[in-house]
Amino acid sequence: MLMPRQTTPALQVPTLQHGPYDMATDSPEHFSLLVFYRGLHCPICMKYLLELARLVPEFEKRGVKVLALSSDNQDRAEQMAQKINMPELRMGYGLALDVARQWGLYISTSRGMTSIGIEEPALFSEPAVYLLRPDGTLYYGAVQTMPFARPQFADLLGAIDFALAKNYPARGEYTGAV
C-alpha cells in the first residue's frame, strides 16, 4: 500500500505525443496528477478522460502536471486518443502490470467484449488517481476496484486550491499502533 508523505515507486512510460514520461525528471511546480485508466475498452474511461482533458489548463494554472496512463499498448492508446481528440492531454501507455501493482492498482481479468464492442485485454489495471509532490511523495490517492464512482476533477481542483492556500499536509500518514 502506498503511504502519504512516502516516496512512490518509480514510473516511466512512453507517451503518445509528449515524449517519454519519467516521474523522476518531470518536475511539476506543485503536484503531478496521475490518472490511471482501464483502457480503450472502457466507455466510462473515455468520458472521464474527456473531462480531464477539458480541465488540463486549470490544473496547469495551479502548477500541476497531468498524465493519464493505462496498460494498453500503443495502438489501443492511439485509438483512445483519437476518440477523445484532445492532444493537450499527455497520455501514457504500456504500463507494466507489475508496476501497476506496485502502485496499488487492482488487476482484472477479461470478461470478453464490452458494451461498446471492444475486447478487454486478458489482464488490465483498474482506475486510480494520485497527486504527488514534486519530490515523488504521495499527497492524495484514490484507488478503485471498479470503473465507476471516480473522484471528480472539479472537486480535485478545489482541493488543490485549498491545499496550496493553507499549506495543508498530506493526511493518512500514521503507521503506528492503534
> What's the number of domains?
1
Strand content: 15-25%
Terminal-residue CA separation: 18 Å
Work out the helix count. Answer: 4
Which class of secondary structure composition applies to the elements?
alpha/beta
CATH class annotation: Alpha Beta
Instruction: Assign an overall shape.
Output: globular
How would you characterize this protein structure?
The chain has a single domain (12-166), classed as Glutaredoxin, CATH 3.40.30. It is 28% helix and 20% strand. The chain has helices at residues 43-61, 74-84, 97-102, 153-166; strands at residues 12-13, 21-22, 31-36, 64-69, 91-92, 107-109, 123-125, 128-132, 138-143. It has a five-stranded mixed sheet. A two-stranded antiparallel ribbon has the order 1-2. The mean pLDDT is 97.
Keywords:
178 residues; alpha/beta; Glutaredoxin; two-stranded antiparallel sheet; 28% helix
Short recap of the structure:
With 178 residues, this protein is of the alpha/beta class.
How would you summarize the topology of this molecule?
Elements: E1 12-13, E2 21-22, E3 31-36, H1 43-61, E4 64-69, H2 74-84, E5 91-92, H3 97-102, E6 107-109, E7 123-125, E8 128-132, E9 138-143, H4 153-166
Parallel strand pairs: 3-4, 4-5
Antiparallel strand pairs: 1-2, 3-8, 6-7, 8-9
